[in-house]
Amino acid sequence: MSWLIYIIIIIQKIFMIWSLNGILIIKIIIKIIKYQNGECRNTFFFERKNMIKNVALIGCGAIGSYFVESLNNRITIIANGKRKERLKKDGLWINDKHYTLNVQTEKSAGKQDLILIGTKADGLKEAISYLPYLLKEDTIVLSLLNGVTSEEKIIQFIPKKHVLHSFMKIGSYRKDNRIYFDINKISDLYYGSLYGNRQQLHSLSQFLKTTQIHFHEVDNILEQMWLKYACNIANNLPQAVLQVNSTLYTKSEHGYKLASLLWSEVYKVAQLKGIQIPEQVQIFPDSEWGYKYSTLQDIEQKRETEVDLFLKELINMACELHIQIPFSEMTYHYIKALEEKNKGYFE
Ligand SMILES: NC(=O)C1=CN([C@@H]2O[C@H](COP(=O)(O)OP(=O)(O)OC[C@H]3O[C@@H](n4cnc5c(N)ncnc54)[C@H](OP(=O)(O)O)[C@@H]3O)[C@@H](O)[C@H]2O)C=CC1
Ligand SMILES: CC(C)(CO)C(=O)C(=O)O
């Protein structure tokens, strides 16, 4: 009889090991399925490191407000001096809803997991000077500015591993502390990694999935940024010179031609830098509805424009490549002269 007891015990043990293994195998299968669906990319390999909790925004204007609206209770606004007092006291009105803000200086905010830079080009230098106070080992920095050089400027001051390349597609309008955009139209964040920081990319996508933000993690972020850059140059600038809305490009063959000429010069520079963008000019969708893009908004509200970010930088690149881009040069000087006119130089 004793051999029978032995056999029963052995069978019992086999079943126990089998069922334990079974549970383990089922757990691994569930993990793999979740990983495939992108639900646990952070945790499968990286053991719950790099979870984004603290998010800071430097520059809560037209595009920054999109993140205030989406992450309201989870976002710290970084500002100093009078700007800080104003933002604390008045908050922001976004699409006619009032938001009170958690405003901190760069020194009081503490270390951040994610930092969004939403200043214009003229505020970038100061924004960069805040970064050392906010950075920890695995902080992610996104620069939302238009143009193709803000990331290069940032990595002159902080290690590359922090920086993902990014830009926004959104039509947002600001007058003082009132901001309007339509989240049902295009309001999208694009980002990608040029410096091989895949872990940051996963953390960011993981975090964004928990929010209402429309986002796209893309492989060809540099091409996408240049495409947006070319669109901004071709669409924002002729309308700013002529001070008319975007029907310029749909109603007038001359307007369309102006956009095409500028586009052809960005295309030439991009080609020589090995960046692929389409040869044919792209007019922003819905331009027949008569939009005023940011450069014209700046001119009308007598603010500095970002023409240096758009054209001065293109002219410098062309110079380095030993090519001429006369339409861009001329447009650059037109807009600079309009800025001077706004400052009352000619009165
Ligand atoms: N508007 C749009 O629809 C789009 C804009 N973009 C790009 O996004 C970038 C931002 O543009 P936009 O949002 O329109 O610009 P805004 O002028 O509306 O916003 C910039 C904000 O940055 C703040 N700021 C400047 N310096 C600092 C600083 N040192 N610390 C804290 N805050 C600071 C400004 O504050 P203050 O007002 O007090 O000076 C302002 O609120 C630009 O590069 C633009 O080309 C891209 C896509 C669409
Ligand atoms: C045209 C627009 C709104 C597209 O996102 C833009 O980038 C700008 O106004 O500068």
Automatic annotation (TrEMBL):
Name of the protein in its database record: 2-dehydropantoate 2-reductase
First-tier enzyme category under EC: oxidoreductase
Classification via InterPro entries: 6-PGluconate_DH-like_C_sf, 6PGD_dom2, ApbA, KPA_reductase, KPR-Related, KPR_N, NAD(P)-bd_dom_sf
Summary of the function given for this chain in its UniProt record: Catalyzes the NADPH-dependent reduction of ketopantoate into pantoic acid.
GO terms (BP aspect): pantothenate biosynthetic process
PANTHER family, per the entry: 2-DEHYDROPANTOATE 2-REDUCTASE, PROBABLE 2-DEHYDROPANTOATE 2-REDUCTASE
Domain Ketopantoate reductase C-terminal: 220-339
Entry EC number(s): 1.1.1.169
Pathway recorded for this protein: Cofactor biosynthesis; (R)-pantothenate biosynthesis; (R)-pantoate from 3-methyl-2-oxobutanoate: step 2/2
Catalytic activity: (R)-pantoate + NADP(+) = 2-dehydropantoate + NADPH + H(+)
Transmembrane regions: 6-30, 51-68
Keywords: Membrane, NADP, Oxidoreductase, Pantothenate biosynthesis, Transmembrane, Transmembrane helix
NAD recorded as keyword: no
Organism: Floccifex porci
Coiled coil residues, start to end: none
Stretches assigned to the Ketopantoate reductase N-terminal domain: 55-178
Record's GO cellular component terms: cytoplasm
Top-level taxon in the UniProt lineage: Bacteria
GO molecular function term, any single one: 2-dehydropantoate 2-reductase activity
